[in-house]
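Lab notebook, bench 4. The sequencing result for the construct came back, and we need a structural model before the next group meeting so we can plan mutations. Quick request posted to the team channel:

Model the 3D structure of this chain.
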Amino acid sequence: MLTRNPSTDQGTFGTLVLDDGTRYVTGELPDRDNICGLSCILSGEYRAIPYTSGHLGKVYWLQDVPGRTEVLIHVGNFCGDVKKGYKSDVLGCIIVGTYLNVMDGQQAVHNSLVAMTDLLDRLAGDDLTLRIQ
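Done. Here's the predicted structure in C-alpha cell form:
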C-alpha cells in the first residue's frame, strides 16, 4: 500500500509498504487534478508489472491508470512543480527511496537506486498490486 502525505509544490511524498512489511518512501508530482505530466495519478488500486525501460532500466509499470500511459515506479530524487521553479525527475511516475530530506534546497527522495534495487529483488519479478490512498 502507498499512503500519501499532503501534497505540496515540492511534490507528493508518501510511504510504500510491501506485504512483508518493507517500507520505502515515495515521491510523485503535486496533486494537480490528474493533469498528465503535471500531476500525481489518481488514488486507486493498480496492477504493476515488471518492465525494462530503454531509458530507466528495470522498473515497474502501472497498468490501466485513468488518463495515463507508461506510469512507472523508478529511480529519481525530485518531483516538484516545474512551473513553480522546482526540479522534477518525473512526468507522472512514482519514485522510491529510503528516506526524505532536502537536496539543493528542495524536498527530495534519497537513496533511490538502493531502494529500487531492493524493491526489484524483493518482488523477484512478481506483479505488484499497488493500492494508493
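The longest helix spans residues 112-123.
Will bring this to the meeting.
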